[in-house]
Amino acid sequence: MAHVTKEMLRERFDEAGLESFWPQLEPLVRPAILVKSYHCSDATLAVGQSKRWGAPDLPPEFVWPERDGKPCPFLCQINLAEVAVFDTEKLLPEVGMLSFFLRDEFGLGDIDGDPVYYFPPGLLLERRGSEDIAELLYFRSTWSVPNYQSSGKLEFLGKNTEAREAFESVADVLYDWGEGAPGDPLHHCVESGSHLLGHADDYQGDHEPECELAYLGVVKNCFENRPENYCALLNQVELASYQNWLCLLKDADCAGGVFTLNCHIRRNDLAQVDFSKTITFAVN
What we know:
- It is a single chain.
- About 20% of the residues lie in helices and about 25% in strands.
- By secondary structure, the protein is an alpha+beta fold.
- The chain has a single domain (about 5-284), classed as Hypothetical protein YwqG fold (Roll), CATH 2.30.320.
- The strands form three sheets. Strands 8-7-6-2-10-1-11-12-13-14 form a ten-stranded antiparallel sheet.
- The protein is globular, with a radius of gyration of 19 Å.
- Residues about 175-180 have low confidence and may be disordered.
């Protein structure tokens, strides 16, 4: 695939009649890091290689996370040195390891939900346990835009408007949801699969406002009898939440693709290499 720049994406939106909306669209067209995988034997992978499933590589003193007395399943580990070249905004640490575990089976959006751990470079890692099958992960650059079906980030386009239809027509080509012209360099340049950074799978609604409220200590379950009050709080934090939160990992291949896990992190926490307050949602 030919290298696609943001300027090329802008020209496509301009051609669709969205030139006047580019100031609002531009920050929503985000670089992301595509995550691809293939099945392999876990024993063939070196300690510290990026992988999904298999047995994790952990420091000897690491205490395996639990939920209700049961060990949390290991999801994946990302060797950040392997992805640094694709992190064009330099948001992630350039070296070290991220390890993701599944505490909530379906990603409930709790502040103490699925844990993420950062292991700095130079730390001794050992393979913990023995598993036959794993998936080797490899990476490349891609782009990410909000899902046009429900994202509140696109409210400035209106609903059932020519502008919204124009955005959808461009997105169809970018996501490969439409046919696209043969040889079109932008056809399928935006990936709908797994990636680091970029946008979450938000076709069921944006997660950032809920993340913001959870981070501030607002417990959604306390509003079961007053859902309108919770919605009012979501509206209050919506705009700020889009600035404050990033999708750290979108895993579209979890559970064989039955559902997608979206792990979110606050920008300030990521800048401080603090992964202790990530929030995960699942959509299916």
